[in-house]
Amino acid sequence: MISINSKLPTVGINIFSVMSKLAQENNAINLSQGFPDYPTDPKLIDFVTKAMKDGHNQYAPMPGLPVLREFIAEKANSLYNANYDPETEVTVTAGGTEAIFTALASVINPGDEVIIFEPAYDCYSPTVKLLGGLVKPFELHAPDYAIDWEMVKKLFTANTRLIILNSPQNPTGSILSKPDIEALIKLIKNTDILILSDEVYEHIIFDGEQHQSVALYPELQERSFVVASFGKLLHTTGWKLGYCLAPAKLMTEFRKVHQFNVFSVNTPMQLGVANYLKSEKVHETLSSFFEQKRDLFRSLITETKFKLLPCKGSYFQCVDYSTISDEHDLDFAKRLVTEFGVAGIPVSAFYTKNKADKILRFCFAKEQRTLEKAVERLMKI
Ligand code: PMP
Ligand code: GLN
Q1: Ligand 1 centroid from CA 286, angstroms
Q2: 170 CB under 6 A from ligand 2?
Q3: Residue 355 has pLDDT above 90, yes or no
Q4: Which residue lies with its CA nearest to atom 2 of ligand 2?
Q5: Residues 354-370: what's their mean pLDDT?
Q6: CA distance 12 to 9
Q7: pLDDT digits (tens, 9 = 90+) for 94-135
């Protein structure tokens, strides 16, 4: 019998796969895993198709096609007044997920401690553990999930290596404010602590708020990996295309890992996306596109027994079901699929300790009629 010493003994199949599968098996409306159910812009498809037909089907350069890296650097410059050299400080990745994995793998050594704000996106913690790092969770609480930075400081030790930020945040839809950033700058001054800033929802922020990228702040930029995803920007989560920005010193280490992980990301998509983005300024209209969906979904939900939590960014809306049921959120989420035909994500899945607050996350990146149909079903509860 071959014995395997699992590197992740407590990890099972992730919650997005579990809930999407259950939704499919029960023919339910799937508001669980975050992905749009409407078509991709045909113009974008044409650009990618043309790139393939024109013969751009072999390896891209390891860090990504220069034309795409240049677009990315210009966008960061115009939005955040940040200088990233496309030659040495921008790398195209296989989605945000690969960027997160690669950034962590390039700087986390066994015994290094990583501070993660929870509820947290599911890949952070297993990746840190896989690398021999130690996760230091900092639990945030509904409804606002605000960060008490003085308490964060108490987690600091001589081994604190990195802090993971995520704004707008998945799953809570909360955002970091300018005072948050100022508190963070004060906290890490005169330390060697690095930052991984997951900004995949940077262009989905509501009510006129400005996204507080770490790239806006030189004191943070110099120590940060910034992660982004074209899946969110272009409504194409299945294309798994993203990128990482970092100062040359960090990016050099990042590329050492990236080149032996995926080497390079698929060529025709990079070229198609670069050409499409030359004429379509998608990032300028994405927030208002999703703000309409958020407002519609929120107004529909008020007709149900679910209580709305704030949603300042991302395409996720959290709801409190404590007046409906006492069940654990995973049980409740499963019953919602099997008995009412709507799938959501139990927020306990995003906490190390499985903190169950009777909160579900719904994705509103859906057609209007999908949201209406889902809420019709939720009204029956
Ligand atoms: N970070 C967060 C917060 C996400 O929500 C996601 C995907 N939904 C990712 C990273 C991964 O992005 P990608 O799908 O481009 O790998
Ligand atoms: N990021 C998506 C979400 O939060 C899912 C990604 C995945 O399935 N791994 O729902």
Answers
A1: 16
A2: yes
A3: no
A4: 34
A5: 95
A6: 8
A7: 999 999 999 999 999 999 999 999 999 999 999 999 999 999
Ligand 1 atom closest to Cα of 121?
Answer: 3
Report yes or no: 167 and 210 within 8 Å, Cβ to Cβ. no
Q: Please determine, for residue 162, whether its predicted confidence score (pLDDT) is greater than 90.
A: yes
Q: Is 198 in the pocket of ligand 1 (CB under 6 A)?
A: yes
Considering only CA atoms, which residue is closest to atom 5 of ligand 1? 170
Name the residue with the closest Cα to ligand 2, atom 4.
34
- For residue 168 and ligand 1, the question of a CB distance below 6 A is answered with no
Indicate which ligand has the atom closest to the C-alpha of 33. 2
